[in-house]
Amino acid sequence: MKPTLFVLAAGMGSRYGGLKQLDGLGPHGETIMDYSIYDAIHAGFGKVVFVIRKDFEADFREKILSKYEGHIPVEVVFQAVTDLPEGFTCPTDRVKPWGTNHAVLMGKNVIHEPFAIINSDDYYGRNSFEVMAKELMSLPEGSTNHYSMVGFKVGNTMSESGTVSRGVCETIDGNLTGVVERTAIGYDENHNIVFTDEEGKVQQLDFNTPVSMNFWGFTPDYFAHSEQFFVKFLKENINKPKAEFYIPTLVNDLVLRGEAQCKVLTTESKWFGVTYSADRPAVVEKFAQLHEQGIYPEKMF
């Protein structure tokens, strides 16, 4: 069975200053999502599901979905802060979304096969889709609790415009044992990759250190785990306006309790994206180069 690609596209880019999901960055107005969908199709994915907000559905359908007709089946689901389990009511002052794993839950009624999750505003590179598709298609039918993530080399994920936050992966025998969130990762004066730890000490990261860029692979049982954990999360955090339910939080919990295994897949792909508005010119240039090199055709869709 071909896996499904689940694209998280509900967020606003506050640091970027707008809907970067809809920004035409390629030489012919291609969005970052266009490259992801193109690479996913060629890697063997059989369907795409987008999670978006209802308020920009019309724009999204016109600018994004229409171009994929005839190339791959597409479905859309919606994320809203008011979409909570029975027994919970969204606080009236809640504006911030409930997080990436809440967005994942929106796909539970339309995804029934192994699936991968990506951000809509990240360029992951063709090899990352190839290794994920291969992993998901290799799973025996009915597999449960066999998860995976693409582990990018931290040196292939940096921004020249500012520091970044990355989930640094800890592994044993290629399997994830934990994800430690590191903030303000940047370059020092010698162009070494560094961050400041909890004690205020500057620590160096090796270029090849695997990090999570939110490219996950799951079997459908993950939805049930998510529902159970979200109830627990809400009991503890519903009145905390900035609390969010993140994918690594649940994966860490399942791995630590021995309920699931998560394989870290190695890729040589270079990630890039538009974390800051200053990143835009460099991203436009990179896409132009990829087309010039023949990696992408003049017309992808």
Brief write-up:
This protein is of the alpha/beta class. It is built from seven helices and 13 strands. The strands form two sheets. Strands 1, 2, 3, 4, 6, 7, 8, 9, 10, 11 and 12 form an eleven-stranded mixed β-sheet that branches. The chain has a two-stranded antiparallel ribbon with strand order 5-13.
Measured between the Cα atoms of the first and last residue, the distance is 24 Å
Structural class: alpha/beta
What is the share of helical residues? 25-40%
Number of strands: 13
**Which H/E pattern describes the elements?**
EHEHEHEEHEEEEEEHHEEH
CATH topology: Spore Coat Polysaccharide Biosynthesis Protein SpsA, Chain A
Task: Note down, in words, how this protein is organized.
With 301 residues, the chain is α/β, with parallel strands linked by helices. It has one domain: Spore Coat Polysaccharide Biosynthesis Protein SpsA, Chain A (Alpha-Beta Complex). It has 7 helices and 13 strands. The chain has helices at 32-43, 57-63, 100-105, 126-137, 222-237, 247-256, 280-292, and strands at residues 4-8, 47-52, 74-78, 115-119, 122-123, 146-153, 164-172, 175-187, 193-196, 202-205, 210-218, 261-266, 272-273. It is globular.
